Amino acid sequence: MSLTLEGITLTYPDGDGRLTALDQVDLHVPVGTTTAVIGPSGSGKSSLLAVAATLVTPDDGTVTVDGTPTGEMTRGELTDLRRRRIGIVFQQPNLLPALTAAEQLQVMATRNRRKALELLDAVGLADQAGRRPHQLSGGQRQRVNIARALMNEPAVLLVDEPTSALDHERGAAIIDLITTLTRAQRTATVLVTHDRSHLTAADAVVTIHDGRLRPA
Ligand SMILES: Nc1ncnc2c1ncn2[C@@H]1O[C@H](COP(=O)(O)OP(=O)(O)OP(=O)(O)O)[C@@H](O)[C@H]1O
């Protein structure tokens, strides 16, 4: 259950020309490991996650999820792959205000309460399952967000700046949680972060500048 990007180039229209957001990017994330990606604003981090999530088709290169190359897949097959094999954690938790923590997880394709409670336990919220978002702290909401992304037992977990709304201590706890769950759930995790102090928790660190990836 690994993630491999090979020779990924992505350009966007830019006036009369094209802007190269990703330039021949190669990245291999083995099962059960977390790769942190660090880079300045505009360097291509969000583009990298969007391509890895198969939400954006690159101009060139191959994304392989769980051993399956995605380049030849139809839109329907890609939607199915995303739903079943890819978990995404955005910066802001985007929880539905009316639902309890357990119900946020059960909204996922698997309407499985036992699994939801297991995952809430894994993120340290076993006793908060009946609470709605406004009854949770910012850190607790992000934990629900992470648990929700794991509901379908994804092969790949893509995490975009998960600590941007949290103080340092809560941010560090969230990063530890992500790397622990990555090992336990055997996902291949890509973690985009601005905070260099988080990098010690990752198994590998790469930097991105102007769309080019380098080992840190
Ligand atoms: N939809 C788009 N159309 C045109 N250009 C885009 C588009 N999305 C991103 N870009 C450009 O591609 C480059 C990479 O952007 P990207 O959002 O991937 O960087 P980032 O590292 O995630 O930045 P940030 O940390 O600010 O979110 C930037 O120059 C950006 O302006």
TrEMBL record:
Coiled-coil residues: none
Domain ABC transporter as annotated: residue spans: 3-216
Swiss-Prot/TrEMBL keywords: ATP-binding, Nucleotide-binding, Transport
Cell cycle keyword on record: no
GO MF annotation list: ATP binding; ATP hydrolysis activity; transmembrane transporter activity
Pfam families: ABC_tran (PF00005)
GO CC annotation, single: plasma membrane
Domain of life (superkingdom): Bacteria
Gene3D superfamilies per the UniProt record, alphabetical: P-loop containing nucleotide triphosphate hydrolases (3.40.50.300)
Protein name listed in UniProt: ABC transporter ATP-binding protein
